[in-house]
Amino acid sequence: MKRVYVNEKWCLACHLCEYYCAFANSGEKSMVKALKNLKINPRIHIEEKNGISFAVSCRHCEEPLCVKGCISGALSQKDGVILIDQNKCVGCYTCVLSCPYGAISPTETGVMQKCELCTTNASGTPACVKGCPNGAIVFEERGTV
Amino acid sequence: MAIDFLYPEFEVVRDQSRCIACRVCERQCANEVHSYDEDLKLMVSDESRCVNCHRCVSLCPTRALKIIKSPHTFRENANWTQDAIQEVYRQANSGAVLLSSMGNPKQFPVYWDKILINASQVTNPSIDPLREPMETRVFLGKKPTNITRDQNGKIKTDLPPQLELELPILFSAMSYGSISYNAHESLARAAVEMGTYYNTGEGGLHKDFYKYGAHTIVQVASGRFGVHKDYLEQGAAIEIKMGQGAKPGIGGHLPGTKITGDVSATRMIPEGTDAISPAPHHDIYSIEDLRQLVYSLKEATEYKKPIIVKVAAVHNIAAIASGIARSGADIIAIDGFRGGTGAAPTRIRDNVGIPIELALASVDQRLREEGIRNEVSLIAGGSIRNSADVVKAIALGADAVYIATGALLALGCHLCRTCQTGKCNWGIATQRPDLVKRLNPDIGCRRLINLLTAWEHEIKEFMGGMGINSIESLKGNRLMLRGVGKKKKELSILGIAHAGE
Question: What residues of chain A lie within 8 A of the CB of B24, using their CB?
Answer without folding.
Answer: 14-16, 19
